[in-house]
Design brief:
By secondary structure, this protein is mostly helical. It has one domain. 81% of the residues lie in helices and 0% in strands. It has 8 helices and no strands.
């Protein structure tokens, strides 16, 4: 019982630290809005909201898996929603493309503000991936679980390309699935005609993969240290 209480206490501390970090992002945006008199970077707030959805779905999925099988209708639906929205958490890193001197506030301020939003987005994305990763490890071989997670990160990297360059988003999976399937199949059939998609996808896959590997090993190191 004491170990469970200690675990809950650590997660509660992480939750409030994350709330404080997200509150800072919103405060930086609000201060810029007041000072500059416009909402130039309003999309950061919306993108951060979207980035949180995978964490919500992962939490609901973990709760559901405690009471039912993964192949149940509810668990499969939550898994689909989690996977569909997960790329949003990592997509925010591409918002650096909007960074430029505006003359409204100092460029350094905008760098700090964007970095804050992107950091929080990545954290909640990796947290949700970690939660699903742990559930996989309870059910299948370790190597298979790692391979599935790597595949998920590869799909997310490709989704980042689709979102940034082709302007597809998560909602289009539901309302325009035929259009997405057409574009995806075109890249598979004619890979040599569009080398940029593979360069972009592999670059983001390498970035996200190494970042998650560091986070995974960090959690393992902290967990091992707490047991001594």
């Amino acid at each position: 019982m004491k170990g469970v209480q200690s675990l809950n206490s650590r997660f509660l501390g992480l939750f409030w630290a994350l709330v404080a970090s997200n509150a800072l992002s919103l405060a930086l945006f609000l201060a810029r809005y007041i000072d500059a008199g416009n909402n130039r970077y309003w999309f950061l707030v919306w993108n951060l909201f979207l980035a949180w959805l995978p964490l919500v779905f992962a939490w609901l999925l973990v709760k559901r898996l405690g009471a039912s099988a993964w192949l149940s209708l509810q668990s499969m639906a939550l898994t689909f929603l989690w996977l569909a929205f997960l790329p949003n958490s990592f997509y925010m890193i591409t918002d650096f493309i909007h960074l430029h001197a505006t003359g409204e506030v100092g460029l350094l301020y905008d760098i700090v503000m964007l970095s804050s939003f992107i950091f929080n987005s990545l954290v909640v994305g990796f947290m949700s991936l970690y939660m699903v990763h742990r559930e996989l490890l309870l059910r299948i071989r370790r190597r298979d679980a790692h391979m599935i997670v790597a595949g998920i990160l590869f799909v997310c990297s490709f989704a980042i390309y689709l979102g940034r360059y082709l302007r597809w988003n998560t909602w289009d999976v539901l309302v325009k699935p035929a259009g997405i399937l057409f574009d995806v199949s075109d890249y598979i059939i004619n890979p040599a005609a569009k080398p940029q998609v593979f360069v972009t996808t592999l670059t983001f896959f390498a970035l996200l993969g190494t970042m998650y590997a560091v986070a995974w090993q960090l959690v393992r190191a902290v967990s091992a240290n707490s047991r001594h």
